[in-house]
Amino acid sequence: MTDHSGWLSFPDAPRIVHPPPGPRSRELLGDQARWETDAVGYPHYFPIAPRVGQGATIEDVDGNRFIDWVGGICVLNLGHRHPRLVAALEKQSEEIWHTLELPTQARVDFLKELRPTLPGKLQNHARIFFSITGGDCVETAVNIADFATGRRGTVAFSGAYHGVHGGAVHLTSGRRYHATTSFPSGSVIRVPYPDPYRPVLGADEGSAGTIAYLEHLVNDPHSGVDSISSVVVEPILGEGGYVVPPDDFLPSLREFCDRHGILLIADEVQTGLGRTGKMWAVEHSGVTPDILCIAKSIGGGLPLAVVAYRDDLVRELPRGFHLGTFRANALALAAGAETLRVLREGDLIDRARQRGPELLHRFQSMAEHHPTIGEARGRGFMIGVEFVHDRRSRAAWGDRAKAMRSALLARGVLMHTSGAWDQVLRFMAPLVIEDELLERGAAAFEDALDSLEAEGSPAPRSVGRTHTPVGPSAPHTIHAPTVPGPHLPPVPSRDLPVDET
Known about the structure:
Blueprint: H1 23-35, H2 42-45, E1 50-54, E2 57-60, E3 65-68, H3 71-74, H4 83-93, H5 105-114, E4 126-131, H6 134-149, E5 154-157, H7 175-178, E6 188-191, H8 208-219, E7 230-233, H9 249-260, E8 263-267, E9 291-294, E10 305-310, H10 330-345, H11 348-369, E11 373-379, E12 382-387, H12 398-410, E13 413-414, E14 416-418, E15 424-427, H13 435-454
Parallel strand pairs: 3-13, 5-6, 5-7, 7-8, 8-9
Antiparallel strand pairs: 1-2, 2-3, 4-10, 9-10, 11-12, 12-15, 14-15
Helix pairs in contact: 4-10, 5-10, 8-9, 11-13, 12-13
């Protein structure tokens, strides 16, 4: 019998008592729908009302227990209510919660913990700028780059997600997000991300095509680009589909930036804090960015974000540069400092580096028997499983990925989509997840695959290598058991794109 004494998670997950949404969840979902904005998206994808989180599991108000392979979208690398974070928060709550920018012991402790963990030459040679959200810290990073270089113009990649508010929304590539803002676009130069599975500029043969195109933008007086201050890049695409670029991409990008006096901004909001099997994803390639964006897991579940930039980048930033009342909340700082200690002192990062490839191989083995899986890819605990109509055309099959999300929910596993057509299911469980829960989740994933394929609905045949998304030939209904959505009141159309990620 398995010894569960050292588990952080509920040992009996997954456990479905009432097929979700259960009666109490339906009640709370109805209250939310009546009183809260209809712009809320996640209740449509996961129609449950959580009651308590524990480790890598969640229990809803109906007593169902779920294996959490979402982790708040990489917010909970240490899981729900890690005991050391709980203790740090309790201690800080007895002292002070909100202090503006005044120095507290919590603030100084966090700075002391963070600086030695930074990648490469930033380690102990960085200045820190606090923020609240990932999008806000990316916007701050671009502002710092513009200020430091005296130029404007930021290269951002297709598939990028850098936030959806203020100026950051224009760095994000999705058209549906651009339609939700009234703020004017900044100077954003969009370049295809080197995606080996869906190459645009020869990414299946390395990053030479991407770098050649960047050189064209800089050197050709008729490229249409007046100036470039920075390049902002995700070391692995997050919302863009968990795309792992060729190994030479970041080193080549670093060299390109150095040749032209352009600053390299690494957005590690989703990839950082051990997610990929190293503290920072850029460490896999030995690249040091000029500016590093940190958020999500750094606060352990509390809002906290950080920009770390080279201490020789600017002599002095003016006071009041990119203000915000709630930046560096003392409670979040206490949780953040303890998060860094746990990651540095324990074996969680090494475990992600070792166990991640094993789980990836499990998904790749499933792909051998399930042709709807076009590719399984990833690094560490950041794994994407892409669904396609057929492997020859690689036509994205978003409806199949969404059907899998619902089928997994019915089986007590939470997993979410990403990618341009929502065709990629992504594994982003807390690093603390127990091995047995990894196995149970993988078994549920394969069972969901078998169930959907047993229903029939063959994919249409296609010819050539088109990447145009194609809808399923018939609607897919999950039969075992059915997963209905929340009962939402009718709302008037606002002619806005719907967020499906």
